[in-house]
Amino acid sequence: xxxxxxxxxxxxxxxxxxxxxxxxxxxxxxxxxxxxxxxxxxxxxxxxxxxxxxxxxxxxxxxxxxxxxxxxxxxxxxxxxxxxxxxxxxxxxxxxxxxxxxxxxxxxxxxxxxxxxxxxxxxxxxxxxxxxxxxxxxxxxxxxxxxxxxxxxxxxxxxxxxxxxxxxxxxxxxxxxxxxxxxxxxxxxxxxxxxxxxxxxxxxxxxxxxxxxxxxxxxxxxxxxxxxxxxxxxxxxxxxxxxxxxxxxxxxxxxxxxxxxxxxxxxxxxxxxxxxxxxxxxxxxxxxxxxxxxxxxxxxxxxxxxxxxxxxxxxxx
Length: 317
What we know:
By secondary structure, the chain is mainly beta. The protein contains seven helices and 26 strands.
């Protein structure tokens, strides 16, 4: 089995001195529009949208596991974006320089995304994986400014103004835990093994952390085979395992198959984070997903459901 995934191998493993991701970007809704529906060019392997920067309509990836918004280094140079500082990125091949550059506004539909800075990245490998030219990645700093409704079945994302809407949660449906950079949520395996997940729309398959599996070796009894995993610059073969049950956001998933990261091919998101696993599109695309970063709320709703009005409430109520 061949699996395309993980732009976050590049996008997550950056060490920026004093770079807190909260409030780096503001999302401006117009006075008359408090909900923006954005069509998706693609869902697999990445969520790709069209957004305008400096008058040019380009393709961008929306990635719930990217800590920051990234721009292609070539585009940054062509726009003469001022370099503010230098950081270090890591992938399977080692370290590489990443620059923080002054940002310019991005237009996503009627929304204006205002940021203090972007991080640069060579998007060549990601462009090849996506099958179209990618200008950048919209990450946590963007998504933390909205309430997002991911409608994978209809290939669109609805973005709501958090000043005017809130998610009407019910007991058992919200499983967030505090995390300053990612969409992080708690769940269980086999009802008694707690798992701390990151929601990652940049991964096609859900994965368990190598160190987590070392603590719970009994889960490897469910090994079913192997998959070929492609990150931005490398391919690795990962074990596949099946767990009898997985509980998340008030739902139970029976006989769920995941990838098992080994010590060598470990996804770099795991190296510095208190995270046990990644929730990929293999699970997420079967539902309508609601996400509120700032209030740490994660909801899964049946994709053919018409309960949007019950899930989202006006702040005036």
